[in-house]
Amino acid sequence: MVVLNDDVNTFQHVVECLVKILPGMGSDRAWELAHQIDQSGSAVVWCGPQEQAELYHQQLGGKGLTMAPLEPA
Asked: What is the CATH classification number for the domain harbouring 31?
């Protein structure tokens, strides 16, 4: 599951969303991913079963993060 860079969300908001929604996501890793998203334009933030990916994708998108389309399993 990929989060894309945008001009809307702050680093803090991205980090808070990743930590709150993705299981096992720690603050340090979320900050690393936020910087990767900013510098590279995107980052893979989670990999796993399609059903869970769809849920997390929907939740992160609902918080305003810019999400790449999910690839079919």
From this structure: 3.30.1390
